[in-house]
Write a structure and sequence with these properties.
CATH class of the largest domain: Alpha Beta
Helix content: 40-55%
Strand order of the largest sheet: 3-2-1-4-5-6
Radius of gyration: 22 Å
Distance between the termini: 37 Å
Number of helices: 17
CATH topology of the largest domain: Rossmann fold
CATH superfamily of the largest domain: HAD superfamily/HAD-like
Strand content: 5-15%
Order of helices and strands: EHHHHHHHHHHEHEHHHEHEHEH
CATH architecture of the largest domain: 3-Layer(aba) Sandwich
Length: 390
């Protein structure tokens, strides 16, 4: 007997919402990346390295969406270029160090490197590994240069070892939050970019509508973001997803963020970042949160299905659901599609509507290639969905 396919109205209607550049404009992360690369450039003898918005869009379109990754790659390229004139150049130990001696070399073409090296096929950690292979394989390096490149690229997620990571975190969090989270004095003063310069992309009326949608019978809303967050249990993490949700008036929505998934990865003995989108586990956990699970229960159920192919018996609630996914990155759309395939393997049918949000040509191409219908902003993308409910 052939199983009937559910219609979109047969189950829950779920909005799965990315945060940055969908609900909130990602000014802070992009500005901290630009400022970090400019600082590294000055230390390496380049007086005016200025990343453009197009540069950042190309980085993200090639799959390198974390500033921890892209800043480390740019720093490695700057060091490699500076060594042409000053083979002993190194990065300082502190963000407050003085600028380095100028040498007159042009800055690297970051866009050209990202396009040639990655082609959208690499995650951020994979892109750093590929950068290391390309740079160390391009010519002979001294032991000191090899160590310096490896330190920049391999420690990009380690705030105690990575200068670029520390700069990004100090600029984004601000001195007080950085010191509270990391337990060390901040070198850069200020209240933090995340708290001050990220403008919401939705009105208070839209925030209220999304909050009401989450609470109404038959409809749910959940945020899935690669932003860092606090850990599910105990100390650890940084409240960057929480800050973003508060700025857009959506603190009441459940969410799945980096801190949650890195905690889960540690429980499973996996690498940090490995369960973030495009992993199916990210969207699977978000769907379980939308269906009513508490955070740890949602994470555990998503890992058991996505990693172990074990159905814990709670997925039937999602059979016949219709999920509309909004993301500015193709990785989120891939995560949703993989989650759909995984659910089909246990005979749970979820209809997925993929909606990309961007005005940038580089991102549009990647979103369309991932199967998304692309809209210029979230309000335009969501209006047909929200209006059908009223």
């Amino acid at each position: 007997m052939t199983r009937a396919q559910p219609t979109p109205s047969a189950g829950l209607r779920i909005l799965v919402l990315d945060l940055d550049d969908v609900l909130i404009q990602q000014v802070a992360y992009h500005q901290s990346l630009k400022d970090c690369v400019a600082m590294v450039g000055r230390w390496c003898g380049f007086p005016a390295v200025q990343l453009s918005d197009e540069d950042v869009a190309v980085f993200e379109a090639q799959g390198v969406t974390s500033e921890w990754d892209s800043s480390a790659i740019c720093a490695a390229l700057l060091l490699e270029r500076a060594w042409q004139m000053d083979p002993g150049r190194t990065l300082p130990d502190s963000p407050s160090a003085s600028d380095g001696r100028l040498h007159g070399l042009p800055a690297p073409d970051f866009q050209a490197f990202f396009r040639a090296a990655f082609h959208g096929r690499h995650s951020g950690p994979e892109a750093r590994a590929e950068t290391e292979l390309r740079l160390l394989g391009s010519r002979e390096h001294s032991p000191g240069q090899t160590y310096a490149l490896q330190l920049v690229l391999r420690s990009a997620y380690d705030p105690s070892a990575s200068l670029t990571h520390r700069i990004i975190q100090e600029l984004n969090l601000g001195a007080a939050t950085f010191e509270a989270c990391y337990g060390v004095p901040a070198a850069l003063p200020g209240p933090g970019y995340l708290n001050t310069i990220d403008p919401p992309l939705i009105s208070p009326e839209t925030s209220a509508k999304l909050t009401a949608w989450r609470a109404a019978p038959g409809t749910r809303a959940v945020v899935f973001t690669n932003r860092p967050s606090m850990m599910p249990h105990g100390p650890g993490g940084t409240p960057e997803a929480e800050i973003g949700l508060e700025r857009v008036g959506l603190s009441a929505l459940p969410f799945i963020a980096m801190g949650h998934l890195d905690w889960l990865a540690a429980q499973r003995g996996l690498e940090p970042q490995s369960l973030l989108k495009p992993s199916s586990v990210h969207v699977l956990a978000a769907l379980r949160r939308a269906a009513g699970d508490e955070l740890v229960e949602a994470l555990d159920g998503a890992a058991r299905l996505g990693l172990d192919q074990v159905d814990d018996g709670s997925w039937r609630r999602l059979d016949g659901a219709h999920a509309t996914v909004f993301d500015d990155s193709f990785r989120g759309l891939h995560s949703a599609r993989e989650a759909q395939v995984t659910l089909e393997s246990i005979d749970v049918r979820v209809t997925i509507d993929l909606r990309g949000v961007t005005t940038l040509a580089a991102k549009r191409e990647a979103l369309e290639a991932a199967g998304g219908t692309v809209y210029p902003d979230f309000v335009t993308a969501a209006r047909p969905v929200l209006d059908r409910a009223t």
